[in-house]
Amino acid sequence: MTTKAEKNALTKAEKKEQAALEKKTAISDTLSNILYWQGAKLVKSDVEVGERLTLFFRRCAETGELPTVEKMSLALGTYSERVNRWEHGQGLLPHMTESTTEMIRRAKHVIAAMDAELAMTGRANTNVYVFRAKNYYGMKDQVETVVTANKDQIKTPEQLQKRYGNVIDVKYEHKKQEAPVVEVVEDEGKEKEG
To answer: How far is CA 48 from each of CA 52, 67, 121, 142, 144, rounded to the nearest angstrom?
Structure first.
């Protein structure tokens, strides 16, 4: 006869084994999804880019795999750095035009929107989203500082004393500076300071 503690121990062991199997399966599925695109030929025209992006997003929808910029780059038969250049109209192949640039931008925007929604709904790690948003989607932390003129400016020692006298010891002594005297000597044509 098995005790309750033995049943719990067996359950814990089974849970640990099940978790290990799920992790192994997830890694295997993810790698299979990536390798599906590994052998894709390089797209060389606007038409090929459009067709390949359609296939890529359609496959992601059918298999339930997450679209990533890296995987999309493999689907286009290249690597992420080249796709980034294409996005900015650089390094385009002879049969590629501004259409390729626009398609890449839109595809990246679809991936960014999906990442954002997954993060907002708690189905993706927020820190991973922040990293991806800053590194792939051009987002950045930004602090705005607004400076406004103080309408209640302190202009006299009395105003200073009134406002801050209970906090600090205000002693103000205004010393009038005298301007240097300049003497003009007409016969020599030179100025003398006195």
So the answer is: 6, 19, 34, 38, 43
Number of folded domains that form the chain: 1
Residue 3 within a domain: no
Query: How would you classify residue 147: left for phi > 0, otherwise alpha for psi between -120 and 50, otherwise beta?
Result: beta
Phi-psi region of 138 (alpha: psi -120 to 50; beta: other; left: phi over 0): left
Percent of the chain past pLDDT 70, that is, above it, reads 79
Contact 65, 33 (CB under 8 A): yes
Strand pairing partners for 95? 45
The residue ranges of the chain whose pLDDT is under 70 are 1-2, 5-10, 149-151, 168-194
Count Cβ atoms below 10 Å from residue 186 Cβ, excluding itself.
6
Domain range for residue 30? 11-136
Q: Is residue 101 part of a domain?
A: yes
Query: What's the whole-model pTM score?
Result: 0.64
Provide the pLDDT for residue 158.
80
Tell me how far apart the alpha carbons of residues 145 and 148 are, in angstroms, rounded to a whole number.
10
Alpha helices in the chain (DSSP H): 4-38, 46-63, 69-75, 80-87, 98-120, 126-136, 157-164
The answer to whether residue 154 is domain-embedded is: no
Q: What is the DSSP letter of 177?
A: P
User: How many angstroms separate the CA atoms of 131 and 49, rounded?
Assistant: 27
Residue 147 lies in a domain: no
